[in-house]
Structure of Class I SAM-dependent methyltransferase:
Amino acid sequence: MLLNILTYAHTLLKESLEEGDVAIDATCGNGNDTLFLSRTVGTAGKVYGFDIQAQAIQKTKEKLLENDCHNVSLILDSHEKIHSYMEETILGGAIFNLGYLPQSDKSIITKPHSTLAAIRIILEKLKTNGRLILVIYYGHPGGEAEKEAILSYTSELDQKEYQVLRYQFINQQNQAPFLIAIEKKKRS
Ligand SMILES: C[S@@+](CC[C@H](N)C(=O)[O-])C[C@H]1O[C@@H](n2cnc3c(N)ncnc32)[C@H](O)[C@@H]1O
């Protein structure tokens, strides 16, 4: 069976992350991706988790404690402020789950300007063969503009430096989410 978007996102990260790596969850939400990253990089690794909503940071904190994960710095701030919090220069991988927090205020959404600013910073720091995963939900007001901004930016990335993949089920109804994966290539 073909992997669903979220499972494929984790599969792509698992293939490229190593124990001891530094990783970023740029949109913690309920903490599912943060927990996944924390387990994947292990106790020798480090995860930075960002969200602009206190309830998301709290939920993520609880999930990590329940699972005995202590290698995460949770940051109540916007993801384009990475430089203010992350000391390490090399990043193993990162994920964004765009849109709004389910069962929450649907007007608090990720926005093109800050999402693109964070993507640029992450790509600079990404290790060779490291991956940045974007899970793009776009069925809500504001979602289409963010989707277009991301597609426009990522499709113009220099193919000598990055491979960019789009993974999408094209016969699903209701603007189902799709995935963009960016992998940094070895400099030749
Ligand atoms: C789709 S949810 C994330 C779901 C999450 N990955 C999970 O596993 O539950 C999107 C999250 O992005 C957060 N968000 C919106 N703008 C943000 C920003 N500029 N920086 C960081 N987080 C942001 C929202 O508060 C929301 O919690």
